[in-house]
Amino acid sequence: MGASSVTFCCMRKPCPLCQAEPPGLTFAGVCESCATTLALEPMPPSKRPPLPCHRCKHRELIRVLPRELTSVPGTGSREVAPMFAVYGPTVIEGSFFSGREVNAPDPQNGAGKMEMYICRGCGFTEWYCQDPSEIPIDPLYSTEAVSVGGDGPLR
Ligand SMILES: [Zn+2]
Ligand SMILES: [Zn+2]
Question: Which of 39, 62, 96, 104 is deepest in the core (most CB within 10 A)?
Answer without folding.
Answer: 39
